[in-house]
Specification:
Elements lengths: L2 E4 L9 H10 L5 E7 L6 E2 L2 H10 L4 E6 L7 H7 L3 E5 L6 H10 L3 E6 L17 E5 L14 H10 L5 E5 L4 H10 L3 E4 L1 H4 L4 H14 L3
Parallel strand pairs: 1-9, 2-4, 4-5, 5-6, 6-7, 7-8, 8-9
Antiparallel strand pairs: 2-3
């Protein structure tokens, strides 16, 4: 079954707990938390304190994505905040293997993310250190963008190479295009606007149920 991970970046910041409660009650699998440093991407969002409070308030796993030039400066703080998965970017360079090991050593699932222009080859040597590979299907930093269909090839490349961990995609995913991602081998769909734009609880519940059913075909 496909896992659905609502991205809280798309929630109403004035009513963050209310909006998150809606998607949790509707049956989502994970909560996706984007952390941005205004350097790696041109936006700023979410601190370890936010992750800690989410951990206290909700029982679903927290999928935390560090879009940071220097994640090592905040790694301990985020690990202590209680994520279930912690993802860092392949583009940070040679420190990547050591940081992935540190995440695992802390008892947290380690993830590595690729920007749209970064080839799958960039993680060939460190795949065994990653429990999850996150493929960005838009340029990271802002919600509401359209999915880049080239990610389908990346998903297939990873599966064909024998990678058996979670493959996650984030950016522009909606009910209309999720099927082709699943067919390529996707296992976790990060969805923002497509979920948080639904205000009626029953409609949201039905939507998430339909998305789960798509993963069973």
């Amino acid at each position: 079954m496909i896992k659905i991970a609502p991205s809280i970046l798309a929630a109403d910041p004035i009513n963050l707990e209310r909006d998150i409660r809606r998607v949790v009650d509707a049956g989502c699998d994970w909560l996706h938390v984007d952390v941005m440093d205004a350097h790696f991407v041109p936006n700023l969002a979410y601190t370890p304190d936010v992750v800690r409070r989410l951990k206290e308030a909700f029982s679903v796993p927290l999928d935390v994505h560090l879009m940071m030039d220097h994640p090592e400066t905040m790694l301990d703080a985020f690990l202590k905040a209680g994520p279930d998965n912690l993802t860092i970017h392949a583009e940070i360079g040679e420190q990547l293997p050591g940081l992935l090991k540190a995440i695992r050593n802390a008892g947290v699932s380690a993830g590595v993310a690729l920007k749209p222009g970064t080839p799958v080859e960039a993680v060939r040597e460190i795949r065994e250190l990653a429990d999850l590979i996150l493929l960005m299907t838009v340029e990271p930093g802002f919600g509401g963008q359209h999915l880049d269909p080239h990610v389908l090839r990346k998903i297939s490349e990873l599966r064909d190479s024998g990678y058996s961990g979670w493959i996650e995609a984030d950016g522009g995913i909606r009910e209309e295009n999720l099927g082709m991602l699943i067919d390529s081998g996707l296992s976790v769909a990060v969805m923002g606007t497509a979920l948080f734009e639904i205000k009626h609880p029953e409609e949201l519940k039905h939507m998430i149920s339909r998305l789960h059913t798509m993963g069973l075909r």
